[in-house]
Specification:
5 helices; about 425 residues; Methylamine Dehydrogenase, Chain H
Length: about 425
């Protein structure tokens, strides 16, 4: 009984339940320096004797606070929570993505004048699949499913010449700036070289095992690159007709090709949804891009920047050379993109199978205009596809080749101003990688 009394001895003099308990003072916020002092002080020992690491947390916190004070508020979103450990590769990648998103969000697109349809040219008896503009900007050439090649005057739109030589759909055209030659490719497996002085075929490049879909001329070498259904790109010597290299590795049709004088010299896009960058000297693939989820049917290189774009049904993606680093998506064109074109004013145009044409700002990917092509009277509604878009050498006129057997020429609206056609730009961070 004595033990029990001792057990309750501490509580026998407690206040009755009705008495108010004293309110404890509110906890004061503890600064990082005080928290560090509590952690580093053990049993009242001196703090200086305990801190033997090379860089103290207080110094790191002071450094971060100085950065925050010196930077604007928008930059605070790229800071990483630093707990004393060095920045990991994952933190670095995350900060780079956040910084890139923020820069794109804050970058306002450049104003561009809207484009209007000026001329409709009829003359082909089949789908117009290919187009190329002469380096002198006086005429352009088109290839069609009616197996003919037609040369048109760029100023008046009148027909100048009709060439025959293919036995199937003409799918690609190219005009050389180094020699008076023109090249054509077709689904009949042939790649022909035309002499523009005599208007005759002077060379034929044999080697493709199936239809040829794309052509590209090297800007500084006498080299022609062609790609098609045999899942490879073939490099030809223009003068000797010999096949220099076979760039193999794709698993499906090579839809489009870029040839440029700098690395990567050859870029191929395929229906296997991949893009390959090639070193022309060694014939080896220097980069294999698998970001697209659908067939890559269109490629275009920027005329002044060291970048290129690829078009697919999922997105238009912009890449940075020479490492082929992904820069940004250009979204909004929810259709099968057949062709891309860009001019010196940073106007990127995409044409799709459903007849839609979208105009984008190259720097930001902002879509400032959308057009729906009108099929020629007598054509089916399904014949509204756009197969090829090219700009003339000045970038002021745009030529579209379409499924309604017509060729349309577009020009910028000279009367438009930023006040009459303002930019409806809303920044967003919703960018997929």
């Amino acid at each position: 009984m004595a033990l029990k009394m001792e057990e309750y001895a501490l509580v026998k003099d407690m206040a009755p339940p009705t008495a108010q308990k004293p309110v404890a003072p509110a906890p004061q916020p503890v600064t990082i320096e005080e928290e560090e002092e509590e952690k580093t002080t053990i049993g009242g020992a001196d703090v200086a004797s305990q801190q033997q690491q090379p860089a103290s947390l207080s110094a790191i916190v002071d450094h971060i606070e100085a950065e925050v004070k010196n930077k604007p508020a928008a930059d605070s979103m790229q800071l990483t929570l630093f707990s004393g450990a060095p920045e990991t590769p994952a933190d670095r990648v995350r900060n780079q993505l956040i910084t890139r998103q923020r820069e794109r969000m804050l970058l306002k697109p450049t104003w561009h004048a809207p484009w209007k349809l000026k001329t409709v040219i009829s003359g082909h008896l089949g789908w117009v699949r290919a187009c190329a503009v002469e380096p002198g900007n006086e005429w352009f050439v088109t290839g069609s499913a009616d197996r003919t090649i037609k040369i048109w005057d760029l100023a008046s739109g009148s027909l100048k010449l009709t060439l025959t030589g293919h036995i199937n759909t003409v799918t690609a055209m190219a005009v050389s700036a180094r020699s008076p030659y023109m090249f054509s490719a077709s689904l009949d497996k042939k790649v022909l070289c035309w002499d523009l002085e005599t208007n005759k075929v002077i060379r034929s490049y044999h080697g493709h095992l199936n239809g040829v879909y794309s052509l590209a001329l090297h800007p500084t070498l006498d080299v022609l690159v062609s790609g098609g259904r045999d899942s490879c790109a073939r490099v030809w010597d223009i003068r000797t007709k010999s096949q220099v290299r076979v760039l193999g590795g794709h698993n499906s049709t090579v839809g489009d090709i870029i040839a440029q004088s700098v690395e990567p010299q050859i870029v191929t896009g395929s229906h296997d949804s991949t893009i390959k960058c090639w070193d022309l000297a060694t014939g080896k693939c220097s980069a294999h891009l698998t970001n697209h989820k659908k067939s890559v049917r269109a490629l275009v290189a920027h005329p002044t920047e060291y970048t290129f774009a690829s078009g697919s049904a999922d997105n238009i993606k912009v890449w940075k050379c020479p490492e082929a680093r992904f820069l940004r998506n250009v979204s909004g064109h929810n259709a099968i993109i057949n062709t891309l074109a860009v001019n010196h004013d940073n106007v990127l145009v995409s044409g799709a199978d459903n007849g839609s044409i979208q105009f984008h700002d190259w720097k930001t990917g902002y879509t400032f205009q959308e057009e729906q092509t009108i099929a020629q009277p007598g054509s089916l509604d399904s014949e509204a596809g756009v197969f090829k878009i090219v700009f003339d050498k000045t970038g002021s006129r745009m030529i579209t080749c379409e499924a309604d057997k017509t060729i349309k020429i577009w020009k910028e609206d000279d009367t438009a101003t930023p006040e009459s056609h303002p930019i409806d730009f809303k920044p967003t961070l919703r960018q997929r990688y």
